[in-house]
C-alpha cells in the first residue's frame, strides 16, 4: 500500500457491530482492536468517532481517551432529537451536552459539535419540527466552544440551508458529511464560507452521485467511511475504481484477519479516495490526498497546520 496520510472524519465506532452485535444477536466476539489496527496499517493517522446522542457521545469520548489517534464529536443526530423532550428537561439536556463538550475539549479529544442536522428520510424516528428545533439549539454549543460542526443533511436541503445561513455567525466552520445531494444543493452549500462536503461510499452510489462529487473543489472536500455503514458495494457506480481490497467473511464466520462482509471499516477510506481520484482523473493521487488531509487538519486539528507551516519555514531557511 502506498504511504498516504488519511483521516476518517466520521466513524461510528461505538456501534454494536464492532462488539459483534447484529440485529440484537451476537454473531462474533468484539473486534474493534483489530479494526483499528487495520486502519492504522492502511495509513490513517486519526479517526473522528461520531457522537449521535448524549449517551453515544459519552461512549465516543471514552473510546477516544483510549488512543491518541482517536477523537470524537458531541451532539444529537436529527433522528434522535426526541431525546431532548424525553429527558424531561430539554434545557438541562442541552447543558449536559455542553458540559460534556467542554470537558472533552479540555482533554483535547472533542473536535466538533454533531452529528446534528436534518433527516427527512426518517421522520418515523423524529418529527421534522422537533429536528429543526434542536438542530438550531446545537449551534449554541458551537458558539460557546468555538468548535466546528459536523452536519447531517438528508432530503431536507431547503430547511437545512435556511437554518445554517441563519446561524452562520455562530460557528467557525463545518462539514456536511455523507453528502448525497444534487449539484444544485452542492453549489448552495459551497456558497457558504468555510463549509466543506464529506464524501463516503453513500456519496458514490450512482453515476449522478459521481458527477456531483466531481464538481466539489478539492479545497472544500473531506473523506470518511461512516462505518459500519456506507460501504462501497458491488452494485455501486464507483466500484470499478476500487483497487485496495481485504479478505472478508460473513459475520457468522468471523475471522480477526478478515473484514466482516458488508460491515464498513475505517481502513476502507482508501477505497473512497481511490474512487474519487480515479473518477476525477487526478494524476497526482498523493497530492490530492494531501490536500484533503490538510483541509481536515485546518478545520479539526488546526495545531497541525501551524506545525506544517513551521516545518516548511524551517526548510526554507
From TrEMBL:
Q: From what superkingdom does this record's organism come? A: Eukaryota
Q: Which residues form the signal peptide?
A: none
Q: Where does a divalent metal cation 2 bind?
A: 152, 177
Keyword Metal-binding tagged = yes
GO molecular-function annotation terms? hydrolase activity, acting on ester bonds; metal ion binding; nuclease activity
Positions contributing to a divalent metal cation 1 binding: 115, 226
Q: Which InterPro entries match?
A: Metal_Hydrolase, TatD-like, TatD-type_Hydrolase
Write out the entry's keywords from A to Z.
Hydrolase, Metal-binding, Nuclease
Q: Pfam families from the xrefs?
A: TatD_DNase (PF01026)
What protein family is recorded? Belongs to the metallo-dependent hydrolases superfamily. TatD-type hydrolase family.
- Name used for this protein in its record: TatD related DNase
The lineage is: Eukaryota, Viridiplantae, Streptophyta, Embryophyta, Bryophyta
Task: Give the encoding gene's name.
Answer: LOC112288790
Amino acid at each position: 500500500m502506498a504511504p498516504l496520510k488519511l483521516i476518517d472524519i466520521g466513524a461510528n465506532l461505538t456501534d454494536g457491530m464492532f462488539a459483534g452485535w447484529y440485529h440484537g444477536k451476537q454473531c462474533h466476539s468484539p473486534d474493534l482492536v483489530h479494526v483499528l489496527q487495520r486502519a492504522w496499517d492502511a495509513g490513517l493517522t486519526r479517526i473522528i468517532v461520531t457522537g449521535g446522542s448524549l449517551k453515544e457521545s459519552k461512549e465516543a469520548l471514552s473510546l477516544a481517551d483510549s488512543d491518541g489517534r482517536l477523537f470524537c464529536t458531541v451532539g444529537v443526530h436529527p433522528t434522535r432529537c426526541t431525546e431532548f423532550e424525553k429527558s424531561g428537561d430539554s434545557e438541562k439536556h442541552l447543558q449536559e451536552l455542553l458540559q460534556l463538550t467542554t470537558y472533552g475539549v479540555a482533554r483535547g479529544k472533542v473536535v466538533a459539535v454533531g452529528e446534528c442536522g436534518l433527516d427527512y428520510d426518517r421522520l418515523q424516528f423524529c418529527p421534522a419540527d422537533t429536528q429543526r428545533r434542536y438542530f438550531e439549539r446545537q449551534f449554541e454549543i458551537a458558539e460557546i466552544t468555538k468548535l466546528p460542526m459536523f452536519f447531517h443533511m438528508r432530503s431536507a436541503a431547503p430547511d437545512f440551508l435556511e437554518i445554517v445561513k441563519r446561524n452562520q455567525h455562530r460557528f467557525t466552520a463545518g462539514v456536511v458529511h455523507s453528502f448525497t445531494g444534487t449539484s444544485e444543493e452542492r453549489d448552495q452549500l459551497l456558497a457558504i464560507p468555510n463549509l466543506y462536503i464529506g464524501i463516503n461510499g453513500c456519496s458514490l452510489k450512482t453515476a449522478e452521485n459521481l458527477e456531483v462529487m466531481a464538481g466539489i473543489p478539492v479545497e472544500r472536500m473531506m473523506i470518511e467511511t461512516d462505518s459500519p455503514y456506507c460501504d462501497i458495494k458491488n452494485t455501486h457506480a464507483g466500484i470499478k475504481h476500487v483497487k485496495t481490497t481485504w479478505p472478508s467473511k460473513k459475520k457468522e464466520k468471523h475471522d480477526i484477519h478478515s473484514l466482516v462482509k458488508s460491515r464498513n471499516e475505517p481502513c476502507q477510506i482508501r477505497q473512497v479516495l481511490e474512487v474519487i481520484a480515479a473518477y476525477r482523473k487526478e494524476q497526482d493521487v498523493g497530492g490530492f490526498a494531501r490536500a484533503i488531509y490538510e483541509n481536515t487538519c485546518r478545520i479539526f486539528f488546526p495545531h497541525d497546520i501551524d506545525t506544517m507551516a513551521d516545518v516548511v519555514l524551517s526548510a526554507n531557511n
